[in-house]
Amino acid sequence: MTATHQPELFKPLAEVAPLFGHHYEWLLNRCKAGAFPHHKIGRRYFMTDSDIAAAQALLAVGATEQRDPHGLRPRSRAHLNGAGRRRR
């Protein structure tokens, strides 16, 4: 018995955007910028399952990476904690 190859289905970005937790236009802008793998047919953009998996891998944050919960950079955090510049 031989395995049959199933072609990957093209999914419109409007269907894919909720998988990323973002709006369609956010995903469209990322595809236009070349940040995510995609397929363009005519004027429309599509993603396959492998494109979606690759894009999600690009967005993944490693477990060892720690981000400041308030989005501050280390210098800003140090300044707020009193380790910033000293005034005379």
Can you give me a brief rundown of this structure?
The protein is built from 4 helices and 3 strands. By secondary structure, the chain is an alpha+beta fold. A hairpin with a 2-residue loop joins strand 2 and strand 3.
Brief descriptors of the model:
88 residues; alpha+beta; elongated; 3 strands; 3-stranded antiparallel beta sheet
Explain what this protein looks like in three dimensions.
- This protein is of the alpha+beta class.
- It has helices at 13-20, 24-32, 49-59, 74-80; strands at residues 11-12, 39-41, 44-47.
- The radius of gyration is 21 Å and the shape is elongated.
- It contains four helices and three strands, in the order E-H-H-E-E-H-H.
- The longest helix has 11 residues, at 49-59.
- The protein has a domain at 8-60.
- Strand 2 and strand 3 (44-47) form a beta hairpin.
- The mean pLDDT is 83.
- It starts with 10 loop residues before the first strand and ends in an 8-residue tail after the last helix.
- Strands 1-3-2 form a three-stranded antiparallel beta sheet.
